Amino acid sequence: MTTAAILLPGVAFAASPHTALARSTLAAQPGDPRAITVKGGADGRSDATAAIQQAIDASRRADGQGAGIVFLPSGRYRLTRSILVPPGVRVLGVGPTRPVLVLADATPGFQSGVGTMVIFTGGDQYNVGRVPVPVPTVVPPRDDVRDANSATFYSAMSNVDVAIGAGNPAATAVRFHVAQHAFLSHMDFRLGSGFAGVYQAGNVMEDVHFHGGRYGIVTEKTSPAWQFTLIDSSFDGQRDAAIREHEVDLTLVNVAIRDTPVGIEIDPGYSDSLWGKNVRFERVSHAGVVISRENSVFTQIGFDNAVATDTPVFARFRESGKVVAGPGRSYRVTAFSHGVAVPGLGTMGTISTDAQITPLRTLPAPGAPAIRALPAVKDWTDVHTLGVVGDGKTDDTAALQRAIGTRRVVYLPIGFYRVTATLKLRPDTVLLGLHPALTQLVLPDGNPAHAGVGGVVPLLETPRGGRNIVSGIGLFTGRINPRASALLWRSGADSLLDDVKIMGGGGSPTADGLPLGAKTARSGDPVADNRWDAQYPSIWVTDGGGGTFADVWTPNTFAQAGFYVSDTRTPGHVYELSAEHHVRNEIVLDGVANWEFLAPQTEQEVGEGMDGMSLDIRNSRNLLFANYHSYRVTRTFHPAAHAVQLTNSSDIRFRNVHINAESAFASCEAAGCGTYVRASKFPFENAIVDKTRHGVLREREFARLDLPATPASAIEATPGIPGIGPVRKLEDGFFSISGATVDAKGALYFVEHRFQRIHRWTETAGLETVRDAALDPVNLAIDASGKLLVLSSLGAEASVYSFDPAAPHTDIRVIPPTPAGAHPGADTLLPVNWWNNGEFRDQYDAKTDHFTTLGEMFAHDAGTPKPLEYVSPDGSLVLPAFRVWQQGAPDHVGWRFSDTLDAHGFVRGKIGSRVFVSNGSEGRTLSGVVGTGGTLTDLKLFAERGGESVAVDRQGRVFIANGQVFVHAPDGTPIGQIDVPDRPLQLILGGPDGRTLFILTHHALYAAQLGPG
Length: 1013
Hints:
The protein is built from 5 helices and 82 strands. The protein has about 1000 residues and is mainly β. Among the domains are: about 210 residues, Single-stranded right-handed beta-helix, Pectin lyase-like (Pectate Lyase C-like, 3 Solenoid); about 180 residues, Single-stranded right-handed beta-helix, Pectin lyase-like (Pectate Lyase C-like), CATH 2.160.20.10; about 280 residues, TolB, C-terminal domain (Neuraminidase, 6 Propeller), CATH 2.120.10. The strands form 11 sheets. It has a 49-stranded mixed β-sheet that branches. It has a 5-stranded mixed β-sheet with strand order 63-68-69-64-72. It is globular.
């Protein structure tokens, strides 16, 4: 078949031989008096940029806090500069043909670097004022455009095509660095000479098709560092690769990649959690997927039912050159997994590759789309024509129920629809909106039907076995309605819940304009005072319910869970679910079989999430969780035992699991603007606990774990290491301990930060409290005179003080920072564990075609001298003044982060000596040379496993804390593993002879006696 030329005014490009011209999914403009329609500029010749930008700007409310819908009618719109889309604005193409955004041949500004036609922007998330990192892809360049960020919700573009003409090698169509409930859908990108269709991706893209260009998608980590899911989409004819990415946690569902050298290329020096279901590779000449950093715990690559033809190499490993080849011209990849494979609970994993590939005579026909199409606009019934008001005050219950009872497709324009009784859908009801933040069904507070003690009274209810679609609306059950649930879902396997937001948590506009807090008491219990955890689950799938759930966000803290499934064997498919901010459970499954969760994400906040659990599975079978993220915010101070709890459940597959607690934030201070990534000491301790079989999984980053219906035989205990004695518990009952040091006699000192205590432990005296002043101690060191040097989190730039443990408790000396200088013979203190990652700042350099790697970032940060330092009174210790960033109030309430405050402890060494540290963002243990100004240079990889702490004994053996204690010989050769009853966090050598390995966990102190190596 020959490629047909399609000509548009001012631009020429080639159509794909595989894809016909796309149909309009909104063939008529839905009625909505609050939406803005673009006027004029649709001839493809005149410059339409101003007309589109004016309409987008007009969609913002006068107070700048809200956003809305912009309709772009059929036509061709020539752009000459970047369109800026504010947070929450949805640009929707309407009319018999899709509107096309056109970049004419050789449009100025799109020839070098990277230039973007449409940029989704963000708000001032952290109230820092000046834009810390301006978007570098704006045409023409500006320094006041703030990128979309982790608070950019609801933004979208749909039913709009893009065409890029010749002579625009730097052009990208859309920059989409967004967070929850944002999407691109029903778009064709005809990229021609362009660099990429999407540069910087986020959340969900559905039914998007990329033709030509150097790449289809080029992207790094999403703004909230969560997954990016691509559904029912295709790529063809890219010059280098269909997708070039790293750390984006790419999830593919029903995606085809054709006629390109590489399907998915992970950038050199980077990892990714990549999961693909029903992916097709056709005529991909070099490799279906190029895998980098194959020995990293963060490299988690998996496919389920991929097929390929004329793709000789399915997977190619960049560093080693190894390949996984296809067994013939056409083949099926039933299952593929590369990364840390865990044989079972109670064990640690190892890197391995599993490929189950069989030849095929021919490729099977493509399957049905994962996401059902919405009905045509001509079939929608606008509820305003049936007497529904939607002003947030009028009780619309009866009018809405009549609409549902008499119309199949019920459309809700923007508005707050007050409801006081359950709305019950018919089996074929389709309930639609176009903006879930501004189109809400709302229960008033204290609604009589939802008061008191009793069974669930849902806001919205679907019938058993129904083929319902609910899309594009928000559901709010109010602050004080104890019997409420937002949605009771009994619909069947063909049903769809898509683009639905449960209000009550982050990013929730309210009908009454009042804040979400519901404080009515002062009991001292924040859960009770706020009425958190006081309603039924927000989304409750039960009684045989199932179907497809896509791009759903459920963060209502007032509910007992965000997503609750019970008593069903009907298959369920969940794509990009965000369940957050609940007191006890984010996701619960009870009596469930035949479900899959692809790219589910949970988050526990400081106040409500201290005891929250990510995933509770009870009495369930045949489940899949892939690209699963379980996140606790960096600000939290409270340990939590495990992310996943199993009870009487088995036949469960976990693929690509990420348990983390690091995040980024922005700051503009005297030292300049920037965005910074900090790591918390309080991710979940363990990934999984099985309450029935009493098994625990410590690995927090892994690619594969199967929990079969019939458990395997018991796993043998880890053999001991000759010369290393058993682990013994010294003390327990702590809230959380860290920051340890030892004195010249081997006495151990450590911090219990939550209660501001400094403890000492010796074999003769046991546990002692040497200080409990309200001075926020974090990390300790001992100088040559025996005095303690204490790093405190008090003060805008933190503080350092010193005291003699033997002196009266009133004795304290504050050490001010001084300019860095020479201190011959002194030891320098450095963090034992680091986290360095360049979130929010583009790492791509178009001149070199290179993304700055994590290792390069770490080397830069660690190798940058600090201008100030703290020197111990006797001059024997130097603590470089690492920069401190502040989030929240500038007083004691705000959070402060720095490399030294975030570390579990210090390592020390003289200038020129080599020390060992962990780089958590790479999952590696490194060694480096201590330099002046607190630098660490000449970094060398020691081990691909890195974690919370590192210690080195007199024989040069290296001990690494990461789930258990891993022991390596001085040359890096693994020696063995020391099993500890709790997760080890800090390791430090002490005791009278220096051969006691102290092991600090959150709640207990352990030790093991070391013999000669």
